[in-house]
Amino acid sequence: MPRGPLEGMTFSADPSASPDVPILSRLLGMLSLLRTDSCELCGETSFLQDELGGFCGPCVEDILSAPGPFLLESSPRVWAAREYSGEMVQAIRVLKNPGHRKAAPVLADLLLRPLYRKLQESWMTEDDLVVVPVPASPAGRRSRGFDQARLLGRALSSREALLVKRSRGRAQKVLSREERRENAGSHFSPSRRIPPEAVPRRVVLVDDVVTTGATIGRCGKILQELGVEEWGALLLAVRL
Ligand SMILES: [Zn+2]
Description:
Helices cover 35% and strands 20% of the residues. By secondary structure, it is of the alpha/beta class.
């Protein structure tokens, strides 16, 4: 079976992309909006701010200081912000919780924004980039009432293009790593044929968790088939 462009690739630490700590300082500096509540991540009752999406300051610091970002080897524009472990596992759970839509903009701002800026720099533009969310599974979308990748993408850019669609398939989480690789690309396809002149020249794929890179590779291939010249991808976390 032919291998996709990213299959079998590994992510490695990208020392040139350091965590954007000033964002945290800015958020923590907005003391006027403090209230006490229990943190969505650690459960401790503490001072929370709406700007932190229901997470307490120490948990946000844990997320920011977790290992990352990671760059997909031999693919210069595919980044995962953090390793999928520790606080990040819980943060992704909160992100997908139907009651917590406010987590997406916070996680996008804290973790994806610095990488989004690097993409803008590498493409030498300050314009909003066209975001293509990697569609969540139909079952997941139905159960939580939203698609977390779309929420993340909207927090980054006002320009969205739904160029990739996803049909029903076996849920990735019940499969082994090998099965995921086989399964990952099979149910993604171009969402619609659009006239060549309407295809964005550059796009950025956005998703929450990456495991093998096969899904991202398949989506990138679809974008190229549609006529996209350059694409990048921003993921919140990578399972290493
Ligand atoms: Zn906490």
